[in-house]
Each structure stands twice: as structure tokens, then as C-alpha cells.
């Protein structure tokens, strides 16, 4: 009974992983790419780990998979947050369709929005 | 006191990672956990007795399914935006206000916001958070705070404060 | 069931395309980060298929090292020194 559920969760995780990678290619600027890919790839890999735990049960491999999933859930948002702040301070412009930039107004002296077409 | 609790947590993590109760493994684990305690114990929380209060553990157990459900919704949302041929995005950075006081609660709020639909934390400063939002619904502070932060604040306040 | 690993490898190739193409350094940093997490998934699935328990240890280590590498890249982007 547990085994088909584990396989289904692994499949859902892999599908979300590939969707995150497609989002990394399709979206127009750094911030949107970071949004799409971080969310999808984190939940996808966490799903793979939970699936392995359900397939293997309380063996060494299953418990290690669960620990790895929890580590991933803690480290991945922090890494994304650091990259986002880094690229804001690096001066990467935002996409021309961006509507508002409060951070640039408060900290960087003006909105960091790309004005030219393209 | 907090050094002792840190030592116990580190040793339990070691036992989970090895899953082996031979004498030599346990001795190595004690040495490694002691080293970790001496080096990093000073950064640990000031009031470790919070780990033993049962109502906090109860709210953590309530919070985990809620969080996973929001994460799943976030992924469906991103999948829709990725696969839609016209890429329906309207991004922007807005500013929200939180009523949480302690630092650890703010960190967990920021991580929860990052993994939930269409929002991502850029910076925490005092009681304001800067949020990158993939589909901006409102640029006013109160309204944006209500949409983004309020689903998590009530749980996190009960867990950490 | 090795088609799962093939799908993840295609995702890693999409990340490589972004690293090659990316207009700025920040795009390349994002690509490296996402590729690291995809490699964690590939390693865990290999551990499941070949029933090798040590590959799961490798995947825990890869998670933590990918995190530290991304933090170093972000510090570089922010133009701060590494011991700040």
C-alpha cells in the first residue's frame, strides 16, 4: 500500500523539478527566475526525499533521506534570500514590466527598473 | 544549561545519521558533539527551556501540514505561470509590516514567505520586510501585510512567543 | 525507472543553458544554485535504484556544500569580503 504512494510522490517531485528548470529558462529577469526555480526545485527535491522515505521505511537510507529533506527545506530559502540581496546590491536591473520597487526607492536611490525596450 | 541541551541535540543528530550503537561509534559521537558544543554553543538560544513546553510542540505539529499545503499551492501557481504561453507576471518589490518581535520568529516568517505563492523575501529591517511579489495586488503596507503575512503570523506567534 | 534520472538530467541541461546564456553574473549564480539542488535529487534517486546507502550520505553532504557555495557567491555579488 505504501509503495505506490511513494512512487507517485517521487513522480510529482520530478515533474516539479523540471517545471522549475523550465521557469529558469523562460522568465525575463533574475528575480522572477529565482522565484520560480527556488520554489519548484525545493518542493520537488523534498518530494523525492519523502518518497524515498516512504519506500524504504525506517532503514538507514530512509532516515537519511528524511534528514536530507529537512536540511534542504532550511537551507534553500536562505540561499535564495542571499542571492536576491546580492543581485539587488550588484545593481542588476529589473524587468521593464515591473510595477513598483520600494527597496530601490528606500535604499539604492531610485527604482532599479530597466527602461529600454528588449 | 543551554550548552547541555545543545550537546543532547547534537548527539541525537549523530545517532540518527549513523544508526549504529557500537561502542566506538558512540565514543566518536560524544567527542564530535563536545567539540561542536564548545565551538558553537555560544550562538544557541538564550532560553532553551522553550523546547520542553508542550503547547509549542503542539503548534509546531499543527503548522507543518499548513505549511506543506501552502507550498503545494505555490508550486501549482508557478507551474501555471511557467506553462501559460503569455507568461502572466506583474512583478514588483513591496514593503510589509510584521507584528512579530523575536528574531527567530522573523527568520521563520521570512522562510515561510519565500516558499509560499508568488512571494519572496529580500530583506528584513526592524519590523519591515521587503517582499518581491510576482503578481502585485496592492502596494499599500497594511493591505499587502494582510495578504502576505497574516496566514503564518498567528501560528508563529504561538510557537515562538 | 531510470527515466526519472533522465528527466532530472534534462533539467540540469536547462540550467547549463542559463549559465552559458545569462546576461549578468547574477543569472549564472542562480543557475549554479539550482543545478546543485538538482544534483542532490539525482544522487538520491541513484541511491534508491542501486540500493547503495552511502550515496545518501553523499547527498546530505552535497546539500550543505551547495548551500555554502551559494552563500559565497552571494557575498561576492554584494561586494563584501568573505570574512565579513
Strand count, sense and barrel status of the largest sheet of chain B are: 3 strands, antiparallel
Q: Structural class of the helix and strand makeup of chain B?
A: mainly alpha
Average per-residue pLDDT of chain A, rounded, comes to 85
The number of helical elements of chain B comes to 6
Shape of chain A: elongated
Find the count of extended strands of chain A (DSSP E, 2+ residues).
Answer: 0
**Number of helices, counting only DSSP H or I runs of 4 residues or more of chain A:** 4
What is the percent of helical residues of chain A?
over 70%
Taking the sheet with the most strands of chain A, its summary is: none
Distance between the termini of chain B: 20 Å
Oligomer: heterotrimer
Query: Which stretches of chain A are low in confidence, meaning pLDDT under 50 for 5 or more residues running?
Result: none
Total strands of chain B: the figure is 3
Strand content of chain B: 5-15%
**Widest beta sheet: strand line-up of chain B:** 1-3-2
Basic shape of chain B: elongated
Name the largest protein-protein interface in this structure: A-C, 46 and 45 residues
Structure description:
The complex is a heterotrimer of chains A (118), B (161) and C (84). Chain A is an all-alpha fold and 118 residues long. Chain A has helices at residues 2-26, 30-56, 60-90, 102-108. Chain A is elongated, with a radius of gyration of 19 Å. Chain B has two domains: 2-48, no CATH class; 56-160, no CATH class. Chain B is elongated. The model of chain B has no long low-confidence stretch (mean pLDDT 84). Chain C has one domain. The longest helix of chain C has 26 residues, at 25-50. Chains in contact: A-B, A-C. Chains A and C meet through helix 1, helix 2 and helix 3 of A and helix 1, helix 2 and helix 3 of C.
Q: How would the blueprint of this fold be written?
A:
The complex is a heterotrimer of chains A (118), B (161) and C (84).
Chain A (H helix, E strand, L loop, with lengths): L1 H25 L3 H27 L3 H31 L11 H7 L10
Helix pairs in contact in A: 1-2, 2-3
Chain B lengths: L1 H17 L4 H18 L13 H30 L8 E6 L5 H12 L4 E7 L2 E6 L7 H8 L1 H11 L1
Chain C lengths: L2 H19 L3 H26 L3 H24 L7
Helix pairs in contact in C: 1-2, 2-3
Amino acid at each position: 500500500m505504501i509503495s505506490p504512494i511513494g512512487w507517485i510522490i517521487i513522480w510529482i517531485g520530478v515533474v516539479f523539478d523540471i517545471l522549475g528548470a523550465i521557469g529558469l529558462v523562460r522568465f525575463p529577469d533574475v528575480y522572477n527566475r529565482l522565484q520560480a526555480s527556488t520554489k519548484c526545485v525545493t518542493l520537488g527535491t523534498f518530494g523525492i526525499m519523502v518518497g524515498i522515505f516512504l519506500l524504504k521505511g525506517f532503514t538507514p537510507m530512509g532516515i537519511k533521506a528524511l534528514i536530507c529533506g529537512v536540511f534542504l527545506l532550511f537551507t534553500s530559502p536562505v540561499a535564495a534570500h542571499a542571492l536576491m540581496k546580492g543581485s539587488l546590491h550588484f545593481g542588476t536591473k529589473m524587468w521593464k514590466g515591473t510595477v513598483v520597487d520600494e527597496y530601490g526607492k528606500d535604499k539604492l536611490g531610485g527604482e532599479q527598473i530597466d527602461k529600454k525596450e528588449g | 544549561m543551554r550548552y547541555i541541551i545543545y550537546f543532547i541535540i547534537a548527539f541525537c543528530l549523530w545517532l540518527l545519521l549513523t544508526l549504529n550503537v557500537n561502542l566506538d561509534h558512540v565514543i566518536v559521537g560524544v567527542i564530535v558533539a563536545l567539540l561542536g558544543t564548545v565551538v558553537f554553543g555560544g550562538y544557541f538560544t538564550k532560553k532553551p527551556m522553550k523546547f520542553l513546553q508542550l503547547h509549542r510542540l503542539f503548534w509546531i505539529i499543527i503548522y507543518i501540514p499548513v505549511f506543506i499545503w501552502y507550498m503545494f499551492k505555490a508550486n501549482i501557481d508557478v507551474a501555471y505561470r511557467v506553462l501559460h504561453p503569455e507568461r502572466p507576471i506583474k512583478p514588483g518589490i513591496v514593503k510589509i509590516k510584521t507584528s512579530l518581535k523575536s528574531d527567530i520568529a522573523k527568520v521563520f516568517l521570512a522562510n515561510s514567505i519565500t516558499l509560499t505563492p508568488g512571494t519572496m523575501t529580500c530583506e528584513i529591517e526592524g519590523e519591515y520586510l521587503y517582499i518581491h511579489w510576482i503578481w502585485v495586488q496592492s502596494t499599500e503596507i497594511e493591505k499587502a501585510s494582510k495578504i502576505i503575512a497574516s496566514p503564518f503570523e498567528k501560528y508563529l506567534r504561538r510557537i515562538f512567543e | 525507472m531510470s527515466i526519472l534520472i533522465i528527466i532530472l538530467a534534462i533539467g540540469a541541461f536547462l540550467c547549463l543553458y542559463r549559465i552559458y546564456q545569462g546576461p549578468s553574473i547574477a543569472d549564472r549564480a542562480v543557475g549554479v544554485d539550482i543545478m546543485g539542488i538538482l544534483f542532490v535529487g539525482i544522487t538520491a534517486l541513484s541511491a534508491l535504484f542501486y540500493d547503495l546507502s552511502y550515496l545518501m550520505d553523499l547527498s546530505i553532504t552535497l546539500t550543505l556544500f551547495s548551500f555554502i557555495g551559494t552563500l559565497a557567491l552571494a557575498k561576492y555579488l554584494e561586494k563584501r569580503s568573505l570574512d565579513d
